[in-house]
Amino acid sequence: MIAQTQPAEQKESTVNRISAELEESDMIKQIRVHSRPNIPGALKLTMLENHSRPPLTKSLFLCIEDHPLSELLKALMREWGYHQTENPEEQSLLVISEGLPQPSGFQQVLTFHTSPSRNRQRLQIPLTIENLYLALESYFHREPRKHLRINIDWPIRVTVRDQQFLTHAVTVADCGIRFISPIDLDRREEMQILIEREDETYNLHAEVVYSIVGKEIGRGDKIEVAVVCTPQSKEVRDSLRSRIIDNYLARVRPVLGSNLFAEALRQLNSTSMSQTVTTARPVL
């Protein structure tokens, strides 16, 4: 797949918006973003947390009436790094089915319900994985991410500065990628990224958002690069998003067991899931 072109003004706006989201990564405490060669110095960006503060604890309490759905959500939220608690701790979130008695002490509440609503504190069943992910993000991030992402080790081929190298992704979203690089790259530097999966090939144009020297964040000598993929067609974004969702569900399926997993799927909107979710074939 090759991304479609779009006007320069729209492309610049898209790059800036998605770059801001990528820079809000809760995995990175402080990063160095390199300037273009003709701009002296480097821009220091401080993230939501710095080295003197403990990592953000994303605490929530699940109070879901449907048992299979509750078990599925528990497994998914562990994948997303949420800490599950039964105490109304500071900044913790209560996720509850509509109609159940609400435990006291929770200042933030997300309610599952069956009727449509635009209320930020209400989420409609059947759920989509993406809407659930983004709804939770809005409670725990100053600048909520607008794109589903996954930590995954995919081999990729990068073409930049008239050279190619094989490496692997660290995080993949429908709009961008973080990967390990053998060379330090400049902000806004352009490249091509080739991702080959068993049934599909993605040929993506990308621009550097930041380049992190590993020793600055306690990761040895590795260089981690984050890029935004733009311009990009809806077809490519939808395909990547579906693959991310399938991978999440494939990870939690063994935790639930096939019967409980199948029951839980009935509470999900399957429009963005492929048929591989309900089969025993692994999704990669």
Give your account of this protein's structure.
With 284 residues, this protein is an alpha/beta fold. Helices cover 25% and strands 30% of the residues. The protein contains 5 helices and 14 strands. It has a 6-stranded antiparallel beta barrel with strand order 9-10-11-14-13-12. A 5-stranded parallel beta sheet has the order 4-3-5-6-7, covered by helices on one side. α2 packs across α4, α2 (67-79) crosses α5 and α4 crosses α5. It starts with 7 loop residues before the first helix and ends in a 19-residue tail after the last helix. Residues 1-5, 24-54 and 278-282 have low confidence and may be disordered.
What keyword list fits this structure?
284 residues, alpha/beta, 6-stranded antiparallel β-barrel, 5-stranded parallel β-sheet, 5 helices, 14 strands, disordered C terminus
Number of strands: 14
**Topology as a string of helices (H) and strands (E):** HEEEHEEEEHEEEEEEEHH
Q: Beta-strand percentage? A: 25-35%
> What is the global morphology?
elongated
| Strand order in the largest sheet | 9-10-11-14-13-12
Distance between the termini: 18 Å
What is the SS-derived class?
alpha/beta
Radius of gyration equals: 20 Å
Helical segment tally?
5
- Catalogue the unreliable spans: 1-5, 24-54, 278-282
Mean pLDDT: 78
User: Mind summarizing the main beta sheet?
Assistant: 6 strands, antiparallel, barrel
Helix amount: 25-40%
Can you summarize this structure?
The chain is of the alpha/beta class and 284 residues long. The protein has 5 helices and 14 strands. The longest helix has 23 residues, at 234-256.
